[in-house]
């Protein structure tokens, strides 16, 4: 029942917010999907902004749970009052008219939504065996929900107290959003992340790519085909089946990851707004030039109209760029590079003609500039910035690994290059700018640029090996496929049949991919939606029933799920030599041996004040453990033994 209520809110509120926002801008020329995406970005930005001071103040989660809906409702009421109730109601309904001649389109669209719902259900019901290892978003969401406060100074991976709060923790709003959804609908964060968040993200991914296709194709059939091709590439391609580092597999798996919102929703929408803003500016300047030579009401109205369109598109672009700042460091850096390359290309290509005014787009770059300045200052103050020693060696090694890991063993890079060459060599190609020149600028300025690599190495080292994500590889291949289809057959004829065919292909591709989740990724089904195994629950129950302080030393394979199951537990290690308390990493080596040096482990555990230790089953004889090592069996599961550490 709560999920049905959540879906109802999800369908209506972003659309109403989009209508309210466009009423303030006087933008009357956007359709349902555009209105919905504008509302989504506005709501995401609003939430992200108000959570910053609340996180800094360590406010209770109830504050943002009340404040956020109230602000959204107040915004809608103000917009309705500004426009008038009748006018606002007209804006809500004028794009929702029903046309009997389009009945087949409506039916097939409903079938697509049913298939997408099935896809969401399958995506929510599976997991990779180590999906939560090093996943900060989920760990922090669980911590917030458990503590009831937004900014508690605790390492979400281990439970250890920390002295300060990181810049990423302040700016990244995804974890707080998941915790808020959990609190409102009274569902654990893991269920919210795996069941509720996909209901938001997956449809938004389809809509964002559809909006991006609007600047590539005027024909709706071509947009739908483009959407299908890019979805199928993301589902089936070798590139998407590289589970370790490819963003595309996150499209439908773990879609609560902040990079999915950045790379699959905000950046495509920002690209659409950037291109449409430039087109509106060109029309505005041309009309202004003609108006100076010839005075007429028609040209005057054209100037006013195109100026208003430009201002609206620029506002949407600035809002999207600002939303990127509160999503992920990778998104804001690479998104800004992409927008800068778009502006640079059109400035150079139109030099001497109708130039674009770079000053008009300064506001687009300002969120990234402010973000980077704050990031540099906080990194310098907290001494968390990386080192530049050995830079060139790391730079060359990184790109060798990118080629070897992501492209060497499949044909994806060759297919991408072939698509670019096809568009370049084609005499009459409307996609040369989007598929050839702009990607070349992005590749030179963003992907292989040592300065960009240094920026990531200093402040976001985990993204160094995925810099190439900024290249719109799947989008370019999909555009080329649609272009080839147009060369063979005309998709403008017999609209209903074409739409029906496209919808049928969509449904077949989605349904046929479902079994491949388990086949391609070795994903394991879970008995419950929160993905916590029964054995992990048993271990936490053993520790809880024993009654001592929950300070635990555990194998790295257990640590992530133990913390997600019980956030009161404090762990000595999280995973793979990372997040070790006091930088004492020797115990990790002892603990993961088949015959560990138990005396050293026990002494270290006592020194650090830990009360429990978990071994694989059978490593230690419970009958002799108390005599030899002063540890007592507290309980056992199918694969693990839990011991209580004695203090004398």
TrEMBL record:
Keywords: Membrane, Transmembrane, Transmembrane helix. Coiled coil: none annotated. The keyword Secreted does not apply. It comes from the Bacteria. InterPro entries: DUF6077. The chain crosses the membrane at residues 6-25, 37-55, 61-82, 103-124, 190-212, 224-241, 247-275, 315-348, 360-381, 437-459, 466-485, 497-514. The keyword Transmembrane helix applies. It comes from [Bacteroides] pectinophilus ATCC 43243. This is Uncharacterized protein.
């Amino acid at each position: 029942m709560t999920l049905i209520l959540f879906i109802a809110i999800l369908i209506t509120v972003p659309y109403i917010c989009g209508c309210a926002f466009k009423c303030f801008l006087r933008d009357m020329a956007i359709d349902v999907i555009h209105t919905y995406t504008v509302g989504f970005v506005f709501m995401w930005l609003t939430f992200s902004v108000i959570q910053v001071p609340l996180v800094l103040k360590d406010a209770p989660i109830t504050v943002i749970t009340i404040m956020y809906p109230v602000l959204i409702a107040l915004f809608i009421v103000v917009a309705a009052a500004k426009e008038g109730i009748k006018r606002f109601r007209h804006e809500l309904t004028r794009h929702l008219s029903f046309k009997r001649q389009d009945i087949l389109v409506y039916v097939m669209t409903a079938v697509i939504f049913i298939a997408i719902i099935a896809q969401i259900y399958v995506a929510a019901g599976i997991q990779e065996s180590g999906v939560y290892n090093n996943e900060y978003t989920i760990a922090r969401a669980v911590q917030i929900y458990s503590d009831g406060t937004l900014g508690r100074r605790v390492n979400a991976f281990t439970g250890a107290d920390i002295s300060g709060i990181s810049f990423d923790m302040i700016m990244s709003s995804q974890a707080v959003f998941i915790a808020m959804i959990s609190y409102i609908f009274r569902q654990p964060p893991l269920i919210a992340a795996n069941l509720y968040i996909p209901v938001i993200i997956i449809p938004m991914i389809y809509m964002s790519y559809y909006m991006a296709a609007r600047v590539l194709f005027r024909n709706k059939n071509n947009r739908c085909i483009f959407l299908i091709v890019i979805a199928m590439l993301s589902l089936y391609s070798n590139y998407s089946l590289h589970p370790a580092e490819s963003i595309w597999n996150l499209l439908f798996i773990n879609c609560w990851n902040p990079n999915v919102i950045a790379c699959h929703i905000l950046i495509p929408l920002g690209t659409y707004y950037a291109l449409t803003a430039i087109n509106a500016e060109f029309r505005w300047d041309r009309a202004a030039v003609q108006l100076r030579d010839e005075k007429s009401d028609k040209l005057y109205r054209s100037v006013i109209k195109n100026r208003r369109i430009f201002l609206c598109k620029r506002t949407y672009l600035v809002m999207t760029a600002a939303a990127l700042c509160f999503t992920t460091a990778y998104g804001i850096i690479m998104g800004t590079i992409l927008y800068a390359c778009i502006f640079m290309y059109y400035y150079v290509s139109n030099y001497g003609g109708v130039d674009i005014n770079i000053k008009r787009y300064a506001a687009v770059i300002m969120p990234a500039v402010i973000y980077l300045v704050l990031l540099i200052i906080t990194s310098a103050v907290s001494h968390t910035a990386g080192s530049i020693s050995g830079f060139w060696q790391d730079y060359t090694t990184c790109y060798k690994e990118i080629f070897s890991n992501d492209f060497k063993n499949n044909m994806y890079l060759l297919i991408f290059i072939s698509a670019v060459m096809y568009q370049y060599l084609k005499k009459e190609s409307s996609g040369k700018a989007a598929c050839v020149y702009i990607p070349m600028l992005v590749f030179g300025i963003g992907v292989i640029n040592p300065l960009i690599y240094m920026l990531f190495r200093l402040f976001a080292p985990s993204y160094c090996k995925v810099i190439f994500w900024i290249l719109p590889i799947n989008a370019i291949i999909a555009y080329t496929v649609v272009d080839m289809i147009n060369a063979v057959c005309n998709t403008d004829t017999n609209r209903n049949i074409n739409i029906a065919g496209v919808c049928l292909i969509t449904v077949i591709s989605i349904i046929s991919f479902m079994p491949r989740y388990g086949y391609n990724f070795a994903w394991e089904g879970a008995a419950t939606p929160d993905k916590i195994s029964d054995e992990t629950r048993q271990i936490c129950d053993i520790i809880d029933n024993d009654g001592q302080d929950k300070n635990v030393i555990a194998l790295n394979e257990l640590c992530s799920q133990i913390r997600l199951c019980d956030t009161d537990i404090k762990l000595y290690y999280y995973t793979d030599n990372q997040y070790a308390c006091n930088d004492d990493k020797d115990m990790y080596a002892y603990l993961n041996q088949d015959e560990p040096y138990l005396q050293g482990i026990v002494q270290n555990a006592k020194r650090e004040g830990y009360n429990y230790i978990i071994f694989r089953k059978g490593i230690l004889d419970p009958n002799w453990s108390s005599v030899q090592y002063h540890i007592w069996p507290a309980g056992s599961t199918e694969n693990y033994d839990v011991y209580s550490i004695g203090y004398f």
